[in-house]
Design brief:
There is one protein chain. This protein is of the alpha/beta class. It folds into two domains: 15-183, Rossmann fold (3-Layer(aba) Sandwich); 189-389, Dehydroquinate synthase-like, alpha domain (Up-down Bundle). Helix content is 47%, strand content 11%. It is built from 14 helices and eight strands. Strands 1-8-5-4-2-3 form a six-stranded parallel β-sheet, sandwiched between helices. It has a two-stranded antiparallel sheet with strand order 6-7. A hairpin with a 4-residue loop joins strand 6 (153-158) and strand 7. Helix 4 (78-91) packs across helix 5. The protein binds 5,6-dihydroxy-NADP and zinc ion. The site of zinc ion has 6 residues, from helix 6.
Length: 390
């Protein structure tokens, strides 16, 4: 049984460069690591916003040679990763500059892991082998969401088998991340909402733990969740609100860089349940989480009603003495929060029915049951999908 704070090692070597105009110094920053890089980006937002031109100008000024590869899609694909690996090998590239969101950063990390590896890059995701000497990755972030800008993980969809799997290594944390909140001003409101649900979920996955005596991280988690609730509403209302976007950008990074999980066992069942949804239906990760998190909460809260009551009181200011009632009110508030951002909180709302529940549950629980707060097998997961149906 887990009682006290776990021993831990925290190693976060990512240099964070935060604030207005910071992307113009990217050439100088890259120069410290490489003179021959891959510039990797998504479906075109960086060209529409003018960011691409500023990045290219800065790279050229610093005398950096670069090849480019655009077209990364949300739920980034393995075929793109393979293309990137080939290009890096052909051009003798040793550094990847990711300009975009979690999808571009994850694609970059996977290319970086795969380029020096003789086998198939998918081996890292099936856990056949571990990442050893990846190329370096630097980031200019354009959406506050996944937290990949400082995290050790990457999530890639293998379109051949319809699986979305993650790999992780501390060696895959970016060497630097440039975080300019102004770059998020052009985001559609939906994307701000998806991103906010994702960063909130990253804290939920850490907050619900069986580890006792972890006051520092309990209270840090609660504070950051409250800040996400406040500022996401402001940012959705006015995407050009610098203060709100700045808070969200830092919250998204802090939510997933590891610090809020120090000394405690983390859960991660909801993410695995969601990854099956986004693999099967190609929905946005944050859209899936806004549905799965409340359903997961309803399914597991009785495991530790007092913790859920504390969540209701400390995160949503629920004023209720009875633990059972406070717990249920906290879950209700979670749904209301997601709805207030314009997100659906049921699968029906997303246009998804129950035809693939059994298949997704089986895959989510493969090779073993998921979740540490409450361990869930395929039978449990199917019930959570049913609760999510609405
Ligand atoms: O492709 P472009 O044209 O750039 O458009 C993107 C994309 O359509 C658009 N966008 C981004 N910045 C913009 C912008 N549009 C206008 N202005 C801007 N400034 O937003 C869309 C979504 O981008 P994406 O990168 O997919 O979003 P996000 O950061 O939410 O990343 C989602 C991916 O990250 C994974 C998810 O599973 C999903 O595949 N995750 C990665 C994690 C990690 N590596 O640690 C952890 C997370 O739990 C998550 O699983
Ligand atoms: Zn996530």
């Amino acid at each position: 049984m887990i009682t006290d704070m776990d021993n831990f090692t925290l190693h976060m070597p990512t240099k964070v460069i935060f604030g207005r105009g910071t992307e113009t110094g990217v050439g100088q920053e890259v120069r410290k690591h490489s003179g021959n890089i891959l510039l990797h980006y998504g479906g075109g937002s960086i060209k529409r916003t003018g960011l691409y031109d500023r990045v290219v100008e800065s790279l050229e000024k610093a005398g950096i040679k670069f090849a480019e590869l655009g077209g990364v899609v949300p739920n980034p694909r393995l075929s793109m990763v393979r293309k990137g690996i080939e290009l890096c090998r052909k051009e003798g590239i040793d550094f990847i500059l990711a300009v975009g969101g979690g999808s571009v950063i994850d694609s970059s990390k996977a290319i970086a892991a795969g380029a020096p590896y003789e086998g198939d890059v998918w081996d890292f995701f099936t856990k056949k082998t571990v990442i050893k000497n990846p190329l370096k990755v630097g980031v200019i972030l354009t959406i506050s969401a996944a937290g990949s800008e400082m995290s050790p993980s990457m999530v890639i969809t293998n379109e051949e088998g319809g699986r979305k799997l993650s790999a992780r290594s501390d060696l895959s944390r970016p060497v630097f991340s440039i975080l300019n909140p102004e770059l998020t001003f052009t985001l559609p409101k939906k994307q701000i909402a998806y991103g906010s649900a994702d960063m909130f979920a990253h804290i939920v996955e850490r907050y619900f733990t069986n580890t006792k005596n972890v006051d520092v991280t309990d209270e840090m988690c609660e504070a950051v969740m409250r800040s996400i609730i406040r500022n996401s509403k402001k940012a959705v209302a006015d995407p050009k609100d610098y203060d709100a976007q700045a808070e969200l950008m830092w919250a998204g990074t802090v939510a997933h860089n590891g610090i809020l999980g120090t000394g405690r066992e983390e859960d991660w069942a909801s993410h695995k349940i969601e990854h099956e949804l986004s693999a099967a239906y190609d929905i946005a990760h944050g859209a899936g989480l806004a549905v799965i998190i409340p359903a997961w909460m309803k399914y597991v809260y009785k495991h530790d009603t007092a913790r859920f009551a504390r969540y209701g009181r400390n995160v949503f200011h629920v004023f209720e003495k009875d633990d059972e009632k406070a717990a249920l009110m906290g879950i209700k508030e979670t749904e209301k929060f997601f709805s207030s951002l314009g997100l659906e909180t049921t699968l029906k709302g997303l246009g998804i029915g129950g035809s693939r529940f059994e298949e997704m549950s089986r895959l989510a629980a493969k090779p073993e049951p998921i979740g540490n707060f409450v361990s869930l097998d395929a039978g449990d997961i199917v019930k959570i999908y049913r609760l999510a149906l609405g």
